[in-house]
Design a protein that fits this description.
Helix content: over 70%
Order of helices and strands: HH
Distance between the termini: 12 Å
Number of helices: 2
Largest sheet: none
Oligomer: single chain
Strand content: under 5%
Radius of gyration: 11 Å
Length: 47
């Protein structure tokens, strides 16, 4: 997976988390934010 695809995936996770938070699905948005943060840190460590 190249860098652009990784950035798109992290961005989609974050934007979906924001949308879920606005919609009132707080548990789901927390899981998405955590997933974006963990995946982002994993990507940063492999480079």
């Amino acid at each position: 997976m190249n860098s652009l695809n990784k950035d798109i995936l992290i961005g989609l996770l974050f934007m979906t988390g924001v949308w879920s938070f606005i919609s009132g699905q707080f548990i789901f948005s927390t899981v998405l934010f955590a997933g974006a943060a963990i995946y982002s840190n994993m990507v940063m460590r492999t480079n």
